[in-house]
């Protein structure tokens, strides 16, 4: 059954906070190192794009990886790592995850979504059906922080009125993966409170 994606938007609205802004304002990212060079953001963006292509049953080619090639050429190595080989290992980890389930039905990927009731927006990574269960996946090229449970809940609340399966997918540079399923329905209430707390005290709120 296709999802009733109530909050799909073509572009970000700069006046509305994002899912990550809500989490950051509530202190969920305190203690994490700041991505001053953009290394982690670029790596994540590249891997997310490649995973979306693979999930559709397509093969990565020179054309589909053009944006990746541009990113790879930039001097963003960290601690002497060969980033091109490292990033390919994350993609191989995703392919290994796909093989575990045999056939994963692609629904959508990297859509801008908005919750018109709690007034926030975001971009989720991947939406698929695994054994008929519609599942929203947040892909991580590092460990899955505890905030991923709330992050995925926030995205689901933009998609439809009924819960989806939620999964944090940790891809590792040794081509392995780890799944983090989130089944606590209380995450939706907790994220709703985060949004309302932000709109009561945050810097980008018009709903006080």
Notes on the protein architecture:
With 208 residues, the protein is of the alpha+beta class. It has a single domain (19-201), classed as Lambda Exonuclease, Chain A, CATH 3.90.320.10. It contains six helices and seven strands. It has helices at 19-25, 39-55, 66-73, 83-101, 147-159, 186-201; strands spanning 104-109, 112-115, 120-123, 126-130, 133-140, 165-171, 177-182. Strands 1-4-5-6-7 form a five-stranded mixed β-sheet, sandwiched between helices. A two-stranded antiparallel ribbon has the order 2-3. The longest helix is centred in the middle third of the chain and has 19 residues, at 83-101. The protein starts with 18 loop residues before the first helix and ends in a 7-residue tail after the last helix.
Which key phrases capture this entry?
208 residues; alpha+beta; Lambda Exonuclease, Chain A; five-stranded mixed sheet; two-stranded antiparallel sheet; 6 helices
Please provide a brief summary of the model.
The protein is an alpha+beta fold and 208 residues long. The chain has six helices and seven strands; from the N terminus they run ααααβββββαββα.
Instruction: Compute the number of strand runs.
Output: 7
- Low-confidence spans: pLDDT under 50, at least 5 residues? 66-80
| Large-scale geometry | globular
Overall pLDDT confidence: 82
Q: Determine the N-to-C terminus distance.
A: 38 Å
Helix segment tally: 6
Q: Give the percentage of residues in beta strands.
A: 15-25%
């Amino acid at each position: 059954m296709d999802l009733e994606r109530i909050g799909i938007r073509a572009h970000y609205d700069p006046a509305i906070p994002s899912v990550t802004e809500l989490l950051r304002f509530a202190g969920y990212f305190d203690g994490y190192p700041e991505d001053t060079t953009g290394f982690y953001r670029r790596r994540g963006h590249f891997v997310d794009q490649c995973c979306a292509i693979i999930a559709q049953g397509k093969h990565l080619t020179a054309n589909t990886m053009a944006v990746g090639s541009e990113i790879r050429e930039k001097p963003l190595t960290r601690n002497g790592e060969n980033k091109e080989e490292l990033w390919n290992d994350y993609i191989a980890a995703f392919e290994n995850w796909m093989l575990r389930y045999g056939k994963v039905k692609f629904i959508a990927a990297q859509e801008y979504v908005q919750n018109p009731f709690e007034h926030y927006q975001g971009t989720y990574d991947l939406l698929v059906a695994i054994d008929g269960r519609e599942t929203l996946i947040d892909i991580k090229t590092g460990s899955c922080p505890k905030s991923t449970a709330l992050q995925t809940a926030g995205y689901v609340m933009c998609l439809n009125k009924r819960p989806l399966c939620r999964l944090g997918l940790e891809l590792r540079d040794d081509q392995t993966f780890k799944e983090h399923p989130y089944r606590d329905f209380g995450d939706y209430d907790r994220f709703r409170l985060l949004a309302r707390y932000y709109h009561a005290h945050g810097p980008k709120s018009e709903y006080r």
